[in-house]
Amino acid sequence: MYEWQNEYKKPVKFSTLRKYVELYSETDLFAKLSKVGLKLSAEVLFYVMLLYYLLSDKSVPLRNKLIITAALGYFILPTDLIADFIPVLGFSDDAAFLSYAISTVSSAITPEIKKRAKEKIDELFEPDVVAEPSKPKSISK
């Protein structure tokens, strides 16, 4: 686990998540990915796709799906805490929220979901363009 993830281990209130849950839509997610996908690190892109596939997994509890939906909604939001167009820092807040969501649902991440996430990344972007993500410490077993 990265040091900055420790602060995201605290429980999140539903009222905090609600505004971001309302921003999520599959159409908007893929529109955002088509605009910024190649600017993302392989790890952040992999987190986004893992969370996308975990939303449809029946083993993930509703509360965790709310956290996933809020994290993806926050990712879609162009004017978040740190604006996405700022080089290097632009996606750091998004990565933190995505990482929190991943750590919350890490036990539900199966090899099949990882495979589907990688395949979707390859479908959306040329495999030569997007580097293979390193195994994030929060999801490796």
How would you describe this structure to a colleague?
This protein is mainly α and 141 residues long. It has one domain. It is built from six helices and no strands. The chain has helices at residues 14-21, 26-36, 42-54, 62-76, 92-105, 111-124. It starts with 13 loop residues before the first helix and ends in a 17-residue tail after the last helix.
Describe the structure concisely for a colleague:
This protein is mainly α and 141 residues long.
List keywords for this structure.
141 residues; 6 helices; disordered N terminus; disordered C terminus
How far apart lie the N and C ends?
12 Å
* Uncertain residue ranges: 1-8, 84-88, 134-141
**What is the strand tally?**
0
Please identify the structural class as seen in this structure. mainly alpha
Mean pLDDT value: 75
Draw up the topology in text.
Elements: H1 14-21, H2 26-36, H3 42-54, H4 62-76, H5 92-105, H6 111-124
